[in-house]
Amino acid sequence: MKQQSKTCEHCNNSFEITEGELSLYEKVGIELPVICFFCRVKIHLSFWMFGKFRKGKSDLSGESLITVLPEKNRYPIYTSTEWYSDKWDAMDYGQDYDENKSFFEQLQELQEKVPHPHQNGIKNTNCEWCDDVWNSKNCYLARSMEECEDLYYCYRDLKVKNSIEAVISFTSEKCYEIGDCHHSYKLFYSKHSRDCVDSYFLYDCRNCQNCFMCWNLRGKSYCIENVQYEREEYLEKLKSFKLGSYESIQNHKKHFEEIVKKEVIHRPNFNFRIYDSTGDYLLDCKNCHSCYTINESEDCFNCIRGIKEKSNIDTNGCWYMELSGNCAACVNAFSLKYSVWSSSRYSEYIDLCIECEYCFGCVGLKKKKYCILNKQYTKESFDKLKTKIIEDMRKRGEYGKFLPYSMSAGPFNFSTSFTYFPRTRKEDILKLGGYWEDIVEENLEGMQTSELPDDIKDVSDTIITQALICPETGWRFNIAKNELIFYKENNIPLPRLHFDVRIKNSLKDLTVLQAYAYKCIYCKKEIEAYYLPEWGYQKIACEECYKQNIN
């Protein structure tokens, strides 16, 4: 099989399908893509709502609920408890296949009848104001986490505790405003650091403690801007930095940004313990290519945000999957194709189906087999009708394509996709059949955050009763009681922006899906690195020179 060149049906850009991809497409048994890698990721993640938390009511019981799904939903919403219960049956919505209509149209008709849960995630305690959270407790306004505890405004964390604004971080505790930081304790305003304790403004540091405004350090203590100090002198200087002042912290952030641009030696990527793999933020991966934020996986192509994947291609936001392709947000699956939010096997074009086998074009089923459009068939009749549907889909140019934008959960600009593709234009999404929502909240009562005390020590406990207005979005937000306790205990000034704005700002440099051409600052070798040119990083090194020049 030789490499093929194609033109993307969505963006009209040309793209290549390599021999390795062709081999895996054949092994998994899915059709070759007709849209480029970036458009595949974009449509997949549009089915994964980032959303804006809101209160609502169950369409089954009227019980109050909290969700990130939009108010104008295309389908009924039940509480998760109700959805997983036996109070309803998705088979009641089954419909016959109509060969005279587009299969996608029929699947969308079914999808809009079948109830969906108000949140994704199970086995949580006191996590009502969360979404896509699993096996966690006492979390608030957080998304995409597993085995976490006592978190506020966090995103895509694993085994993190008692922290605020931690994004894409693992096994850390009592941290604030960190990104891609792991195995750390009391780490603040830091990025790409591991095994660090009691430190502020670190970038790419490891095994450091009591350090401030440092970069590329290994095994250091009591350093400020990479200069070594005695313990007493360090602690005295730390007091002078006014860490409880919002104005002072903003100045420190500006200085930190300049250091990252001009002083930090940047490695080409943040991959660890990989073999024959390409991409960024890979950990313990083997033979994974064009993959991003993937852990403990092997033999994969074109996957982002997954754990324990094997022989998958074009699976995004998928965990514990094997031999699957062109899927989004699926877990515990085997040989799954063109599907979303499902945990099933040997199935195609399914949405929100749990522990099913040999199903085609179904929504919301649990533990079913040989179903099409939520109707039960014998194995023989299932195989015959499935073959007929695929033939019809091929004639219409549908088969092998992922579900259309019109079947996504809500507005594109409130989806996870928008965090990866923030420059996407409204008119382009609408043209593809997607959704967009401009939320304008006017005449909201509350305090402008510019009126907040500069220093946390001057903040009254009554602030938790005061609504605050974000200056960027005009959205209202509050300071929670335990949040305020955390800020005071750790001498952190109150935030001024809505928590969703803060999280998206933190994600900007952690969601790059394209390598750019650079020359190593030392040996001048041509390299590829995952930093946008407009960031202006001045010291990007090849892997060998990076290792030789860090401290």
Notes on the structure:
- By secondary structure, the chain is of the alpha/beta class.
- Among the domains are: 42 residues, no CATH class; 118 residues; 108 residues.
- Helices cover 21% and strands 29% of the residues.
- It contains twelve helices and 35 strands.
- Strands 18, 19, 20, 21, 22, 24, 26, 27, 28, 29 and 30 form an eleven-stranded mixed beta sheet that branches. Strands 9-11-12-13-14-15-16-17 form an eight-stranded mixed beta sheet.
- Strand 16 and strand 17 form a beta hairpin.
- The longest helix is centred in the C-terminal third of the chain and has 18 residues.
- The radius of gyration is 25 Å and the shape is globular.
- The mean pLDDT is 96.
Salient structural properties:
single chain; 551 residues; alpha/beta; eight-stranded mixed beta sheet; 35 strands
Brief summary of the model shown:
Helix content is 21%, strand content 29%. The chain is of the alpha/beta class.
Topology:
Elements: E1 4-7, E2 14-17, H1 19-28, H2 37-45, E3 54-57, E4 64-67, E5 77-78, H3 80-84, H4 103-111, E6 116-117, E7 130-134, E8 142-146, E9 149-152, E10 155-158, E11 161-167, E12 176-179, E13 185-191, E14 197-203, E15 209-215, E16 221-224, E17 227-228, H5 231-239, H6 246-262, E18 272-275, E19 279-289, E20 291-295, E21 298-301, E22 304-310, E23 313-316, E24 319-322, E25 325-328, E26 331-337, E27 343-348, E28 354-360, E29 369-372, E30 375-376, H7 379-396, H8 416-420, H9 426-431, E31 447-448, E32 468-469, E33 476-477, H10 481-490, H11 499-507, E34 516-519, E35 526-529, H12 543-549
Parallel strand pairs: 5-6, 7-8, 8-10, 9-11, 11-12, 12-13, 13-14, 14-15, 15-16, 18-19, 19-20, 19-21, 20-22, 22-24, 23-25, 24-26, 26-27, 27-28, 28-29, 31-32
Antiparallel strand pairs: 1-2, 3-4, 16-17, 29-30, 32-33, 34-35
